[in-house]
Amino acid sequence: MLKLSTEDKVYWLAWHMILAGQANKFWRIMDHFGNPREAWYAPDREFGCLAKAHRNNLGELLSRRKDLNLHELANYLNHKDIKIIFFSDEGYPEQLKTIFDPPPVLFVRGQSRCLHETGVAMVGSRRASHYGLSVAESLSRQLAEAGVNIISGMARGIDAAAHRGALQAGGKTIAVLGCGVDVIYPRENGKIMVEIIRTGAVVSEFPPGAPPEAWHFPVRNRVISGLSKVVVVVEAAEKSGALITAHAALEQGRDVMAVPGNITSKLSRGANGLIKQGAAPVLGAEDILEELGVGVIFPPRASDPSEGVKLTEIEQKLNKIINFEPVPLEVIVQQSGVPAGEVMSALMFLEMKGLVRQLPGKLFARIK
Q1: Residue 212, preceding bond cis, omega within 30 degrees?
Q2: Res 78 pLDDT > 90
Q3: Whole-structure pTM value
Q4: Closest Cα partner for 24 from 206, 219, 213, 214?
């Protein structure tokens, strides 16, 4: 595609603004008219070029074209905090250009160069278990330590855990949103968003101010997979949005991997189903690095968080008993053979050392 002139960019952006999230219609119009300016001033009757499936809400589209103020829109090009990357720009990620219906425009906050670096998508359930959250955080941390960028959707659950893991390692992470890049959603991820912008990037094809509408999220999932070399599903139910990302990845020729889960858990049916269908299982960060072909060059740091931490004999025994799945206090006492009082004291120190977390109901689980 030829490089767009400044004038062309205004019209290109105008079309994108009224068709954000509907890239298929955008590209259909561009293919027919060849130029965004010509399409903008074309008479309504010429939009019969759209196939029947694309003519839905045509009247609304043409009405929005008529009402949009191009002079106000031109100010977006000079926005200081939000970078606009057009499909024809050199800064547009090459791997994203190859997907079906790529976004005509990307809005970015943070370090846009991250979009060109090796990335792994980490996705999963919003209502994740402690096991899923711990695994996503741990895998992302180790991958970030190996120099791999972590890509996710900044949703609750697995997404947020993946971003946190990368940030803990001082690595880069990319959040692909289903709303404008200036919209914090969900609200509790405001702090994460600030940290991501500082070292990584927040990206969206939806314009600034766009609300997080339900239909936006399946649309944005193709961008998450499109920016990635490998998509890892950590924990997902049978109808999880993470599976939409996995299917988009397969259509785009990306590798899909999944973390095995408890076969009795509904949250694991999606991930386990992917493995049954041929997705490579993830038993550790080294599996993902091997898939990327960088496992030997960039070995992750030791995955055992207790290495380098001094533990008493009792603490070592309890640390081996406690897994990512929450374990009741009475089970820990029974399996350790240590008096309950000593167990409670040792658990308190394991919490202080950042190895164990107490959950409601006197349950204990490993943090990482």
Answers
A1: no
A2: no
A3: 0.81
A4: 219
